[in-house]
Amino acid sequence: MGSAMTRILPDSMEKWLSYLQTNQRYASHTLAAYRRDLVLLLEFYPDTPAENLSNAQIRHAVARLHAQDYSPRSLARILSAWRGFYQWWIPQTTVKVNPALDVKTPKIARSLPKALSVEQTQALLDHPTVITGTEPADLRDQAMFEVLYSSGLRLAELVSLDTQYTRKDGYESVSWLNLDEGEVTVTGKGGKTRTVPLGRTAIRALTQWLAIRHKLLPPSSTTQDQSAVFLGARGRRIAPRVVQLQLKKLSLRSGVPAQVHPHVLRHSFASHVLQSAQDLRAVQEMLGHANIATTQIYTRLDFQHLAQVYDKAHPRAKMDETDKKK
Question: Any transmembrane segments, and where (predicted)?
């Protein structure tokens, strides 16, 4: 099989990916995954145009991938990409039925999201290298991590933040700060916009960073880079990979016993707010979840936390030695 990145897709598939990027604001890694998924489908049936594929052929392709040890989660994403393409494309054709519509994949075991405890989060964000650093990159990193935890943003939402709403030279902001109101407005998955509060610590970190941000900004920057809240070493809008690497370095230095990536701070935000407020709808709104069932998984995290407290505190919670021998 050829490389997914070099394989030329049919014009219809290229237009769908372009639509997801431009109109739905899908992240680049999601688009790359969907491209690979579409290539898989084409390579299963190289002599059959996409519009002629049948439901049976889609089922057969999924079965073959399952036999190749693709995980249920990967199969679900691949089928979602196929189904999404046909759903977008069919109204423009004479095809009447989405061939991927009722195809099922093996059930995914729903795992709990990885979240830090409140103590671990404080150890991470209050580490001396973060709170005492004075270099531009130090202040930038402190602001980035505080915003991730304060507002539960996705990584793509964080890097898309602008200092204010901007519409200039063909560029228009999709996400921006409003420090006067103590909030951020972001465009998330599916092109949905939401406004989320910023905590006092995040506002203070942002204020310190924005005061020296100009030191990383070259005079010849594009409007897009001039608008960006967070900049890389070369003065361009920071790349998602840089955020990931900087957070990983901090987690290693702080000794937090977990693989900390930006989404862990999002999970931690949701878990900690839910533990304190017990308001599932509010957490759903702040996370930008379309379905409350997605948010409900954090109630399991909350119960897990309560169960641990119970086991440690209740005099009759633990088994004695006689029980263990039964």
Answer: none
Task: Tell how strand 175-178 and strand 161-162 pair up.
Answer: parallel
Residues 263 and 154 sit within 8 Å (Cβ to Cβ): yes
On whether the 11-92 domain is CATH 3.40.50, my answer is no
Q: Which segments of 90-239 does DSSP mark as H helices, in order?
A: 118-125, 128-131, 136-151, 155-159, 200-212, 223-227
How far apart are alpha carbons 279 and 266 in whole angstroms?
Answer: 17
Is pLDDT larger for residue 230 or for residue 254? 230
Instruction: Read off the pLDDT of residues 264-273 as tens digits, 9 standing for 90 and up.
Output: 888 888 777 7
Q: Which sequence spans correspond to the domains of the chain?
A: 11-92, 119-256
Q: What is the pLDDT averaged over residues 163-182?
A: 91
Query: Using an 8 Å Cβ cutoff, are 269 and 150 in contact?
Result: yes
Query: 235 and 217 in contact (C-beta within 8 Å)?
Result: yes
List the catalytic residues. 154, 189, 263, 266, 289, 298
